[in-house]
From TrEMBL:
Residues 99-142 form the Flagellar basal-body/hook protein C-terminal domain. This is Flagellar basal-body rod protein FlgC. Its main location: other. It is found in: Bacterial flagellum basal body. The basal body constitutes a major portion of the flagellar organelle and consists of four rings (L,P,S, and M) mounted on a central rod. The rod consists of about 26 subunits of FlgG in the distal portion, and FlgB, FlgC and FlgF are thought to build up the proximal portion of the rod with about 6 subunits each. GO terms for cellular component: bacterial-type flagellum basal body, rod. Keywords: Bacterial flagellum, Cell projection, Cilium, Flagellum. Residues 7-34 form the Flagellar basal body rod protein N-terminal domain. Belongs to the flagella basal body rod proteins family.
């Protein structure tokens, strides 16, 4: 495995985790939004991540012999959470129905906080791997002197 390929894997992980943090921030910002461009309340969004290449045994063998590019990770979709919206009784709200209920977004602050913490930890792990690879490259250059 080349040094550059290792750095690319860590960089793809950092990009994916940054997107997760951005989506969690969007969810938190819209936890009280009852009217969107589409007309309904805001729905929680989730990032769907996938390995950038096939992880079959043949690909692993090709990768081990340096004939294939490394996998990494990529975001394939930002999906809406299909869980039920939260009805809240507030007859004075402009978006209340005939019974006085307002459909509130399905955003849970605790869940978003945990997702943010998980993405931050994953981002930090990728930075650690990136820095370790950088240090190994520097040591390899020192050996060559």
């Amino acid at each position: 495995m080349s040094f550059i390929n290792s750095l690319n894997i860590s960089a793809s992980g950092m990009s994916a985790q940054k997107l997760r943090l951005d989506v969690a921030a969007e969810n938190i910002a819209n936890q009280e939004t009852t009217r969107t461009e589409n007309g309904g309340p805001y729905r929680r969004k989730m990032v769907v991540l996938q390995a950038a290449e096939d992880n079959s045994f043949r690909k692993a063998m090709d990768f081990a012999s340096s004939q294939a590019r490394p996998a990494g990770v990529r975001a394939v979709q930002i999906a809406d959470d299909a869980t039920q919206l939260n009805p809240v009784y507030d007859p004075t709200h402009p978006d209340a129905d005939a019974n006085g209920y307002v459909q509130m977004p399905n955003v849970d602050l605790v869940k978003e906080t945990i997702d943010s913490m998980s993405a931050t930890r994953s981002y930090d792990a990728n930075i650690t791997a990136f820095n370790a690879m950088k240090l190994m490259m520097q040591k390899a250059l020192e050996i060559g002197k």
